[in-house]
């Protein structure tokens, strides 16, 4: 069973107080925000926390793009979601209805030309990793990705070799310094009762009169094809149930779907399960998949290869079910059960209350 290391706990609980005040300077930061259904995603709130840890007396703006009422609703939500935020910039345009990376990168470039931020930060989600490096290329700077700790406004720590080593780097480039940050390393704020009724940031609309298909966005959105699912989003879910090659077939993964339904959980998978065609690759957790850190991570038939652990080892509680008592997953698990998942899952389904 695992023992949490001081470094992983301290990075999890990292807060703005870790940078001495003398090292802080007046800077302006833009956070590129992600939202869905009128709600700003928790990973963005972590990115704002990261911005606040660079300098908490600065000006932090969040850029929300999209179109229509759900964007305006997300702007109101953002304005009251994080005490470190001072401004919500709303980019409302039909070209931005879908998060098309090329167009959004153009938007970041466009806003930066006008506002000259010192930092541009977003979360290390698929969204952030798709857009920020493109925007960095347009701005001719080199981004730093997957930041887990900010110990000085220009010094950043990021995992390398599938999380087996940490690399600390100093940014010596021109402004803006562009970062993607791991949501799991920067806590979202817990608002007091008074704060939860407050508005922290002013909302302003970005003037997009020059933003047209002719000048921005070489790509045009055609359509999205994805299975409709009511399951919580894998990266932001509080509970994740993951299946590995031990599940043996796509049919058997339906057992996990049923279990996930009872636990209001997201379903994840190992690369071996994805490669075997059991599930779609957007469920893959790990070095080349999604990075998750839910409150509860339950792994069925997962061996615990380092590339998989790189995507889930920061989960608060890890439960592993494997028939091999020597499986490496047990070294990181808080609770382990040596057993056959085809016995364990039906038993769990039977014992969990009917929804
Ligand atoms: C560059 C690179 C990047 C990679 N990126 C990723 C990544 O992002 N994510 C990822 O997951 N992997 C990744 N991998 C692959 C990784 O190395 C492993 O091959 C993969 O994670 C193994 O998946 P698995 O645990 O499902 O399969 P296996 O290693 O085959 O393990 C299956 C486990 O199921 C158990 N089992 C079998 N039957 C049962 C049963 N009935 N009941 C209970 N337990 C059972 C077995 O004991 C075994 O431990 C990457 C590899 C490389 C080289």
UniProtKB/TrEMBL annotation:
Its main location: mitochondrion. It is found in: Mitochondrion matrix. InterPro entries: DHS-like_NAD/FAD-binding_dom, ETF_a/b_N, ETF_a/FixB, ETF_alpha_N, ETF_asu_C, ETF_asu_C_CS, Rossmann-like_a/b/a_fold. Keywords: Electron transport, FAD, Flavoprotein, Mitochondrion, Transit peptide, Transport. The keyword Transmembrane helix does not apply. GO terms for biological process: fatty acid beta-oxidation using acyl-CoA dehydrogenase. Residues 29-215 form the Electron transfer flavoprotein alpha/beta-subunit N-terminal domain. FAD binds at residues 245, 270-271, 284-288, 301-308, 322. Pfam families: ETF (PF01012), ETF_alpha (PF00766). Its cofactor is FAD. Signal peptide: none annotated. GO terms for cellular component: mitochondrial matrix; mitochondrion. Binds 1 FAD per dimer. GO terms for molecular function: electron transfer activity; flavin adenine dinucleotide binding. Heterodimer of an alpha and a beta subunit. Belongs to the ETF alpha-subunit/FixB family. The electron transfer flavoprotein serves as a specific electron acceptor for several dehydrogenases, including five acyl-CoA dehydrogenases, glutaryl-CoA and sarcosine dehydrogenase. It transfers the electrons to the main mitochondrial respiratory chain via ETF-ubiquinone oxidoreductase (ETF dehydrogenase). This is Electron transfer flavoprotein subunit alpha.
């Amino acid at each position: 069973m695992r023992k949490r290391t001081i470094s992983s706990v301290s990075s999890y609980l990292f807060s703005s107080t870790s940078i001495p005040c003398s090292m802080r300077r007046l800077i302006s930061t833009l956070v590129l925000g992600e939202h869905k259904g009128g709600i700003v995603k928790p990973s963005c709130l972590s990115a704002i926390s990261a911005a606040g840890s660079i300098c908490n007396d600065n000006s932090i703006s969040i850029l929300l793009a999209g179109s229509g009422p759900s964007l305006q609703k997300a702007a109101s939500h953002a304005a009251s979601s994080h005490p470190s935020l001072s401004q919500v910039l709303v980019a409302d345009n039909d070209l931005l209805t879908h998060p098309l990376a090329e167009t959004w990168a153009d938007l970041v470039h466009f806003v930066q030309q006008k506002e000259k931020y010192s930092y541009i930060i977003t979360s290390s989600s698929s969204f952030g990793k798709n857009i920020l490096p493109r925007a960095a290329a347009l701005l001719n700077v080199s981004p730093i990705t997957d930041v887990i700790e900010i110990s000085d406004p220009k010094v950043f720590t990021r995992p390398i070799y599938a999380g087996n080593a940490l690399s600390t780097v100093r940014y010596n480039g021109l402004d803006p310094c562009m970062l993607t940050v791991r949501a799991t390393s920067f806590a979202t704020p817990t608002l007091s009762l008074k704060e939860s009724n407050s508005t922290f940031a002013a909302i302003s609309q970005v003037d997009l009169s020059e933003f047209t298909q002719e000048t921005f966005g070489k790509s045009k959105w055609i359509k999205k094809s994805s299975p409709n699912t009511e399951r919580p989003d894998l990266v932001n879910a509080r509970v994740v149930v993951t299946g590995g090659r031990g599940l043996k077939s796509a049919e058997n993964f339906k057992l996990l779907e049923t279990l996930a339904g009872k636990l209001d959980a997201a379903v994840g998978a190992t690369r071996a399960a994805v490669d075997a065609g059991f599930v779609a690759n957007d469920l893959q957790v790990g070095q080349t998949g999604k990075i998750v850190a839910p409150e509860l991570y339950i792994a069925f038939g997962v061996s615990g290869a380092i590339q998989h652990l790189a995507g889930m080892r920061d989960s608060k509680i890890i439960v592993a079910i494997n028939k091999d008592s020597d499986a490496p997953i047990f070294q990181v698990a808080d609770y382990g059960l040596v057993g056959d998942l085809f016995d364990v899952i039906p038993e769990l389904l039977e014992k969990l209350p009917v929804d």
